Amino acid sequence: MVKREFWYQLIDEARQVVKDEPLLASYVHACILTHDNFEAALSFILSNKIADEVMPTLAVKEMFDMAFAKDPEIIQSAINDIVAVFKRDPAVTSYLTVLLHFKGFQAIQAHRLAHYLWNQGRKQLALFIQSRNSQVFSVDIHPAARIGQGVMFDHATGIVVGETAVIEDDVSIMQSVTLGGTGNESGDRHPKIRQGVMVGSGAKILGNIEVGEGSKVGAGSVVLDHVPPHVTVVGVPAKVVGRPTCDRPCETMDQKIY
Hints:
This protein is α/β, with parallel strands linked by helices. The chain has nine helices and 15 strands.
């Protein structure tokens, strides 16, 4: 979605919330209606979540503003993440709900700042953002991990993503998922999750392995080997048990095992 269009839609939704629920009026004004654009609103919301007693909100907001200005793709990725959640989660009826209340979305956006800082060589600052992300949202993503756009962390609590992990575009990951290593090895040691994949709650995907495009990992599975494209795997250790009913399980979010 085009950024300007998206922002106007958020404004309309915010005004409707103010009309329907006056108790939220000041909150919605502070988060949305006092800002000129989406990036200003997003940096305000995230900085108020990430700041603590030692690192003030203004300092965190300046970091977000800098990252958004230097790398505008971060903003487009955030928009695509919101649209993805809106389309995939039947409980979501507005873009505004995702922006204001969904910690999986907010954790991914905080990671985008940490990743930007990591790539700029500001690694200690990136690790600070990672730590706050983990404390605030219960989502622990190493700053070096690469995450595409159109990504949904559903419920999100307990998600862990290792340093060399890759999550490509259009992926859905449920709560308590680990993309981890298999020990104390160094180098490229974490999973690569390809486009269109859905990972069920509690799954553990371990090692430098690939989950192929359009595949589905069942809840509670432990994946230790490469997963071919367009299959369903389940079990401990995970085995191929069938094929998803569509090419992009990330979109249908069908939890059944076929």
